[in-house]
Every structure is written in structure tokens, then in C-alpha cells.
From TrEMBL:
Residues 14-121 form the Bacterial Pleckstrin homology domain. This is Bacterial Pleckstrin homology domain-containing protein. Pfam families: bPH_1.
Length: 122
């Protein structure tokens, strides 16, 4: 599992590549809503969960997939980009896991991510 406390995700940018990487992990009826990629790692939002992908090793052939079901979210926080600070952040608090933090580039629609999570949590 990804160590979210010690692992610094690079800024995530919208990218369809990771949607393809997790396609074999999807359940029947599960659909990718959006996907984001950093230098090597990625995050995929589906209609059932968030899948964090951690690419490991020099060649990148080893990957860790962490499934974060929406049903385990107890709270979340969204920080949008500003005039001078163009990055945005998503902090999610999971029961039994704790806080998970993702950082996005300024062009990311944090409102859409917030609505997606709210639809499953509220």
C-alpha cells in the first residue's frame, strides 16, 4: 500500500493514460470518471472508488494499486487554486486509514472532484 504520510505525490494533471492502466481492475458496472497523472504515479476516480497508482523501481514495471472506496470517506477538504498559487489540493479522511492528500495542477476542476465525492459520501 502507498504510504500517504511519507510519499510525496508530484502535481497531478488530467490524463487518460491511467484510466487504461486500471481497466483490468474495474468491477462489472464500474466506470472511470476521470484520471490524473504525475511524473510516474497516477490517480483514477471511478463511480465506486479512487484508485491510486504508485509506479516503483527503475524500470517502472512494478506498480502498487491502492483502492480507496468512497464508502470509507468520513470527511474531505478541497483547496482551489488562486491568482498566484496555481495548485490545488484534495485531502480525504478515511475511516481506519487516516488522511490521504493529492495535489493537482491549477487547471484541475476541484469543483467537479468535490461533487463526485459528495455524490458518494452524502
Amino acid at each position: 500500500m502507498i504510504d500517504f504520510n511519507n510519499k510525496g505525490f508530484f502535481k497531478l494533471k488530467q490524463n487518460e493514460e491511467y484510466a487504461e492502466r486500471v481497466s483490468s481492475l474495474l468491477l462489472d458496472g464500474e466506470q472511470v470518471i476521470d484520471s490524473y497523472k504525475s511524473m510516474r504515479d497516477g490517480v483514477v476516480f471511478t463511480n465506486k472508488r479512487i484508485i491510486a497508482v504508485n509506479v516503483q523501481g527503475l524500470t517502472g514495471s512494478k506498480k502498487d494499486f491502492t483502492s480507496l472506496p468512497y464508502k470509507n470517506i468520513v470527511a474531505y477538504s478541497v483547496e482551489t487554486s488562486g491568482t498566484f498559487d496555481l495548485d490545488s489540493e484534495l485531502e480525504i479522511y478515511f475511516s481506519s486509514l487516516g488522511k490521504v492528500k493529492f495535489e493537482f495542477t491549477g487547471r484541475t476542476s476541484m469543483v467537479e472532484i468535490s461533487k463526485l465525492i459528495s455524490q458518494h459520501v452524502l
